[in-house]
Design goal:
GO molecular function (chain B): ATP binding; phosphorelay sensor kinase activity
Number of domains of chain B: 5
Function (chain B): Involved in the transmission of sensory signals from the chemoreceptors to the flagellar motors. CheA is autophosphorylated; it can transfer its phosphate group to either CheB or CheY.
Structural class of chain B: alpha+beta
Strand content of chain A: 15-25%
CATH architecture of chain A: 3-Layer(aba) Sandwich
Number of domains of chain A: 1
Shape of chain B: elongated
Number of strands of chain A: 6
Helix content of chain A: 25-40%
CATH architecture of the largest domain in chain B: 2-Layer Sandwich
Enzyme class (chain B): transferase
Strand content of chain B: 15-25%
Largest interface: A-B, 49 and 54 residues
CATH topology of chain A: Rossmann fold
Oligomer: heterodimer
EC number (chain B): 2.7.13.3
Number of helices of chain A: 5
CATH superfamily of the largest domain in chain B: Histidine kinase-like ATPase, C-terminal domain
Shape of chain A: globular
CATH topology of the largest domain in chain B: Heat Shock Protein 90
CATH superfamily of chain A: Response regulator
Protein name (chain B): Chemotaxis protein CheA
């Protein structure tokens, strides 16, 4: 049983102008790299330097009605690491469907599986090329 | 912010990361580490690796990768941190510092082959060789996992499926995918993948709705659909496959239309070569078994029965566990901006003083606003200076590595104790104290500490102790380098000094003076100049460097039980509290840090010893009196001690008395360099501008006193009077 599907029905190409991305990384240079790349792509960027700050900012931004459309988080961070952050975010009902990309230096299947089972939507392997970053975001940003 | 600027920040992060690591190594060595200590070290390496990759420092990235792998095994408990392993980890840390420096300065990366081999060996459980071989092969075995769908190729041939609308697409890709039922979890959305395919100029041919249940059974958060699309043949297969990377459990087939399968089958009666494969119903999902790395089965602890570090260096139960403090929150400010602020505040202080003076001339000196302004100015100045202040830690953190290298070079065993590393001092001082301090450390290990055999013979513990400490002491910072070695052998020092013609053979010297001989130019006690301390730099250069910072250096030594070098430095080179005094028609500033008391002598309080020498009886002890006017050649000053003001000062060489005409005021002054604006003058430390606009010279108390003490039989250059 098949039915044809018109390409016109597809979601638009993730209109960046209206999309906000929160980046979480304890390294200022990595945050800046992300911000530079994401800004070039036309996204608005919120930043946090570890899981704890990310949760605070996420709560604050959502209360103010401008919550992020996507979360990009590092794994290894002090206080609350990336896996812990994802778990806490997914616990909140309103964020069950928030796309989350993890930044990882490993591209092994084991790490990917771990990211997925932790609740991540996808991953970006560091160091990232801006085009790859853009592609990864397109694949998950609603 | 461009890439270069971000890279600069990355290198600053590297420095911070390295400092954090060093601090945590210290915790480990003191037996006070916990899992977070190792975790923090791991994170530092991990961050450096991430940045190294981003900025294209491949050697650094490769090195940090192996380093991180080993640390990860320690972190997760697979490896136990024994002294051998710690040695490897700390050794790798030193090399990491070199790698970072090479990446920053664009120099050659260090030869890290041996260290990489050590890291890999340490990461590999010490098991029979075959296991290691299997591990080495593991990645290769794992590699095909991503291409596991190739197995479908064989299956394609078995399939006979309708080929809807695939005509005319020979050579293009036919992509069929059925996301798993959980594809909508975690924010996933298969429709986005369809969009990606269309962005590759793909065209969706059909949606497979065969798995859609009846409405009653439909779960809104489950995925039931599958799609078939045609993507132009020019697109690389990897690009298509990449789209589905995040879809965990997804049936995906990518096949070139019109391409015969691997082995064309005889019973393929379809006259059209097109293949359409839908495996979702007929074929169970092909599970590519994840290769089980043999490491997972490896014994948790390495076979080497090395004792845990904690037992080698037992933690003193009386001392609290040392946990490295969390990194401070900081903001980076361009130094030029900061210096401009410091200068402006300095000018403000001077202007404020002038204003106070003018007001008092008009009888308004007592108004409360003036006092408030004075307080605020002073507070502003202190706060500004505090911005420039840095903990000694930035210097001290480099010392452990120096010690480690010295241990290797000398074969001695050294324990380093660091006290007061958070003591703050002006940035300029921090930056310029490193070199003399390094030399003192080298001197302590090389000359101060005995060899292991000598120590045991002397009944001392095998391990020598070098203590590095910093503390604030009456407006100055005192940095001490202390060893528990052999101490200064005064007979040998004296003999050497006579031999080198530094002193006459019959010179009468106090112990203190003999000790100070080692600061004489051209003096070296080592029988042969070793390649550690004797790099053409003597202790005289150390003293010169310290003096250039407005500092002093002193020695206390006990033969047989060790020496201690104390550097006393001003906290800031920009301001000082001083007493304003007059001598003849001149106004001088005496730094308050030196002043013990000031007094007018009693009639018989001053004992005259000769035309220029006299002593003051200060409550029973006699202190030499220095007439500032005579020292500096000033006319018209008071010559009768009974009519003058005597100021008791503390100096390197003990107490002394400075004789001046009168005391005018006590206040904070902004130091203006004589060297920068005129030239260095012996006996003067600098100049300042007073409230009335006049220039007053700041006395260099140590220099004035040592000049007087100068013994013609000593060839020593007096303190502060280096030609």
């Amino acid at each position: 049983m098949t039915s044809s599907l018109s390409n016109a029905n597809l979601p638009n190409e993730g209109n960046p102008v209206s999309s906000t991305i929160m980046t979480v990384d304890d390294s200022p240079s990595m945050r800046m790299l992300l911000k530079a790349a994401l800004s070039d792509l036309g996204y608005k960027v919120l930043e946090a330097e570890d899981g704890v700050e990310a949760l605070e900012r996420l709560g604050g931004a959502c209360s103010a009605g401008n919550g992020p459309d996507l979360l990009i988080t590092d794994i290894n961070m002090p206080r609350l690491d990336g896996f812990g952050l994802i778990e806490k975010v997914r616990e909140q009902d309103r964020h069950r469907n928030l796309p989350i990309l993890v930044l990882t230096t490993e591209s092994s299947d084991e790490k990917k599986q771990r990211a997925r089972s932790a609740g991540a939507t996808g991953w970006i392997v560091k160091p990232f090329h801006p085009d790859k970053l853009a592609a990864a975001i397109r694949r998950v940003l609603h | 912010m461009n890439l270069d600027e971000i890279q600069q920040i990355f290198f600053q992060e590297c420095d911070e990361g390295l400092a954090t690591m060093e601090a945590n190594f210290a915790s480990v060595r003191q037996g006070g580490h916990d899992s977070e200590t190792i975790n923090t070290i791991f994170r530092s390496v991990h961050s450096i690796k991430g940045g190294a990759g981003a900025f294209g420092h491949e050697r650094l990235q490769a090195f940090t990768h192996e380093y991180e792998t080993l640390l990860d095994l320690v972190r997760n408990g697979t490896l136990t941190l024994d002294s051998d392993l710690l040695g490897t980890i700390v050794g790798a840390f030193d090399m990491l510092s070199d790698h970072v420096a090479a990446a920053r300065d664009g120099g050659d990366a260090p030869a890290d082959g041996a260290m990489l081999a050590r890291l890999v060996a340490a990461s590999t459980p010490s098991a029979p060789a075959p296991v290691a071989a299997v591990i080495a092969d593991a990645p290769a075995a794992a590699a095909p996992a991503g291409d596991g769908f190739d197995d479908f190729d064989d299956l394609f041939a078995l399939c006979e499926a309708p080929a809807p609308a695939a005509d005319g697409h020979s050579g293009d890709w036919q992509v069929t995918f059925v996301p798993g039922a959980d594809a909508l979890e975690n924010g996933g959305d298969p429709l986005l993948l369809v969009r990606e395919l269309t962005m590759l100029d793909g065209e969706v041919l059909a949606a497979d709705v065969s798995r859609l249940p009846l409405l009653d059974d439909l779960h809104p958060e489950r995925s039931y659909l599958g799609w078939t699309a045609i993507v132009p043949g020019a697109v690389a297969e990897d690009d298509i496959r990449g789209i589905f990377e995040f879809m965990g459990d997804c049936d995906l087939t990518i096949a070139r239309i019109g391409m015969p399968p691997v082995a064309p089958l005889a019973d393929n009666d379809d006259d059209d070569d097109t293949l359409l494969v839908d495996l979702s119903e007929e074929t169970p999902p092909v599970v590519v078994p994840a290769p089980v790395a043999p490491t997972a089965d490896a014994p948790a602890a390495p076979a080497a029965p090395a004792a845990p570090v904690a037992t080698i260096l037992p933690a003193d139960p009386a001392t609290p566990r040392t946990v490295a403090p969390p990194p401070a929150q900081t903001i980076r400010v361009d130094l030029d901006k900061l210096d401009r602020l410091v200068n402006l505040v300095g000018e403000l202080v001077i202007t404020q003083a002038m204003l106070a003076q003018r007001l008092s001339e008009h009888g308004a000196g007592g108004i409360s606003e003036l006092t408030d302004l004075d307080h605020l100015t002073r507070e502003l100045q202190e706060s500004t200076m505090a911005i420039r202040a840095q903990p000694m830690k930035t210097v001290f953190s480099r010392v452990p590595r120096i010690i480690r290298e010295l241990e290797v070079e000398t074969g001695k065993r050294v324990r380093l104790d660091i006290v007061g590393e958070m003591t703050e001092v002006d940035k300029t001082v921090v930056e310029r104290i490193g070199e003399p301090l390094t030399h003192l450390i080298r001197n302590a290990v090389d000359h101060g500490l005995e060899t292991t055999a000598e120590r045991l013979k002397a009944g001392k513990p095998e391990e020598g102790v070098v203590t590095l400490s910093a503390a604030h002491h009456s407006g100055r910072i005192v940095i001490t380098v202390k060893d528990d070695g052999r101490g200064i052998d005064r007979k040998r020092v004296r003999a050497k000094a006579v031999e080198r013609g530094i002193i006459a053979h019959d010179a009468v010297l106090s112990d203190e003076e003999v000790d100070n001989l080692i600061f004489a130019p051209g003096f070296s006690t080592a029988a042969t100049v070793s390649n550690i301390s004797g790099r053409g730099v003597g202790m005289d250069v150390v003293r010169k460097n310290v003096q250039a910072l407005g500092g002093r250096i002193g020695i206390t030594s006990n033969f047989g039980s060790g020496s201690s070098f104390a550097l006393s430095l001003p906290l800031t080179l920009a301001v000082l509290d001083g007493m304003i005094v007059t001598v003849g028609d001149q106004t001088f500033v005496i730094p308050l840090g030196h002043i013990v008391e000031s007094l007018r002598p009693e009639e018989d309080g001053v004992k005259i010893l000769g035309p220029t020498a006299s002593l003051l009886d200060v409550r029973g002890s006699y202190v030499p009196v220095h007439r500032v006017a005579e020292q500096l050649g000033i006319q018209g000053a008071q010559t009768d001690p009974a009519q003058a003001v005597l100021i008791v000062v503390e100096s390197d060489t003990g107490q002394a008395v400075l004789m001046v005409d009168s005391i005018q005021d006590q206040r904070q002054v902004v130091v203006k360099s004589l060297e920068a604006n005129y030239e260095a003058i012996p006996g003067l430390a600098g100049a300042t501008i007073l409230g009335d606009g006049r220039v007053a010279l700041i006395l260099d108390v140590d220099a004035l006193i040592s000049r007087w003490r100068r013994d013609p039989r000593l060839g020593l250059t007096p303190l502060g009077l280096a030609a």
